[in-house]
């Protein structure tokens, strides 16, 4: 995003005055509206006068969220760390409808993917990586609370797997509105 902002800013500079230093860009606060209007003009579909949403290269935009699907395979903990390193989290779907929408959009119904659901310790139930408990009203799941078990997405269903199994994973984060 910063590179894109820099590029747009360069388009507004008088020829021959572009420089890479922040002070020499000469952009004042009042110029940012014009810069973002130009970014929207270049990047957003014509009818999106209020802007559009963008994801980083390699991420898939679905609705207002960005999704990244791994090529490699890792146990659940390493998958969670990888998502954190990307400034995101393992997938925490809102409800069954989002799972079905993701399944249709990503078209990977035969593979298991780690999502952000686990049974962290004995005596605890299923917990999302954001700290919230699994809401049985949103997801109709019927499997035990065995520690060391983590959630996977296969098709539009969540199923349990041992957390040390090596699988692909899905990260998600909010898109950027410009």
From TrEMBL:
InterPro entries linked: C-type_lectin-like, C-type_lectin-like/link_sf, C-type_Lectin_Receptor_IMM, CTDL_fold, NKR-like_CTLD
Domain C-type lectin residue range list: 62-172
Keywords: Lectin
One GO CC annotation: plasma membrane
Presence of keyword Zinc: no
PROSITE patterns, sorted: C_TYPE_LECTIN_2
UniProt main location, coarse: membrane
Protein name according to UniProt: C-type lectin domain-containing protein
UniProt source species: Chloebia gouldiae
């Amino acid at each position: 995003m910063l590179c894109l902002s820099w590029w747009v800013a360069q388009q507004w500079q008088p020829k021959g005055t572009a420089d890479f230093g922040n002070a020499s860009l000469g952009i004042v606060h009042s110029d940012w509206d014009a810069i973002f209007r130009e970014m929207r003009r270049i990047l957003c579909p014509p009818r999106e006068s209020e802007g559009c949403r963008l994801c980083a290269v390699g991420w898939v935009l679905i609705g207002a969220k960005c999704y990244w699907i791994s090529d490699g395979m890792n146990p659940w903990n390493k998958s969670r760390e990888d998502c954190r390193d990307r400034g995101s989290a393992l997938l925490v779907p809102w409800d069954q409808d989002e799972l079905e929408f993701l399944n249709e959009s990503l078209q990977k119904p035969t593979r298991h993917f780690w999502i952000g659901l686990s049974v962290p310790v004995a005596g605890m139930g299923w917990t999302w990586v954001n700290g919230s408990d699994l809401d049985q009203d949103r997801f109709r799941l019927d499997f035990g609370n065995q520690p060391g078990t983590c959630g996977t997405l296969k098709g539009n269903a969540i199923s349990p797997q041992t957390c040390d199994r090596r699988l692909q994973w899905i990260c998600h984060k909010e898109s950027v509105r410009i």
